[in-house]
Amino acid sequence: CHDLDHPGFNNTYQVNARTDLAVRYNDISPLENHHCAVAFQIFSQPDCNIFSTFDPESFKQIRQGTITLILATDMARHGEILDSFKQKVDNFDYTDEEHSTCLKMVLIKCCDISNEVRPMEVAEPWVDCLLEEYFMQSDREKAEGLPVAPFMDREKVTKPTAQIGFIKFVLIPMFETVMKVSVQDNGDEGQSNGGATGTPFPTGFHCSSPKKVGRSHRRRSHRAARVQGESREVFGNCKIAVARTRSHTHI
């Protein structure tokens, strides 16, 4: 639902054209805020409320997490989020809530721009659709006397140059940064290493005995273990995706 009810015109247009969405959200990620709002409006309907059996605290956490991740897909925040993640990768700790949240933000961003790491026969038709959306926006901006981004101008952009620039300066740097967070198991001792230099998890990471660890620590440990497991496949796919993308673009 991170692009739910997308109107086909990006945040820059929303702000410059002073649309209802830009006014409603004070020019701050108007589209992403709208996607969140529409999603939870749908969830609030009795026949669509997939969270109806959740207790209030669990729902609060899910809602906050959803909002955080959807807002992270605003490309205006790309540099901010990636820089924050880079500061954590060398000593990444899955049990640290801030580290875990930052990783999830980067992973949803990887998903958001993942079209270019798919096989060419899958990716190229979507690139054509995206460029047509860009051209429609730039045509309207010209008609309304608004600023036009060069990468959206049908008179200036070509598909090869647009794709190579995006892949080289946005996609590959982010995927390669994600790949620096390693996930390794060290047997039954319950220790794992994360980060380029390896940050040890505490002994008893997988322990579930209340006699050995407190309830809150166990919850964090189980959550971290789940994130670890899900991340293994993602990191493997990142390596494959970067290699495939480099071969397609000769970067």
Helix-strand pattern: HHHHHHHHEEEH
Structural class: mainly alpha
Strand order of the largest sheet: 1-2-3
Q: Spans with pLDDT under 50 lasting ≥5 residues?
A: 184-213
Give me a quick take on this structure.
The chain has 251 residues and is mostly helical.
What would you note in describing this structure?
- Belongs to the cyclic nucleotide phosphodiesterase family. PDE9 subfamily.
- Keywords: cGMP, Hydrolase, Metal-binding.
- Residues 186-228 are annotated as: Disordered.
- One of its GO terms (molecular function) is metal ion binding.
- This is High affinity cGMP-specific 3',5'-cyclic phosphodiesterase 9A.
- This protein has a domain at 1-73.
- The protein has helices at residues 11-16, 20-24, 30-43, 56-71, 78-89, 97-112, 120-144, 159-179, 215-249; strands at 183-185, 192-194, 199-200.
- It has 251 residues and is mainly alpha-helical.
- Helix 6 (97-112) packs antiparallel against helix 8 and helix 8 runs antiparallel to helix 9 (215-249).
- The protein contains 9 helices and 3 strands, in the order ααααααααβββα.
- It starts with 10 loop residues before the first helix and ends with a helix.
- The radius of gyration is 21 Å and the shape is globular.
- Helix content is 60%, strand content 3%.
- Strand 1 (183-185) and strand 2 (192-194) form a beta hairpin.
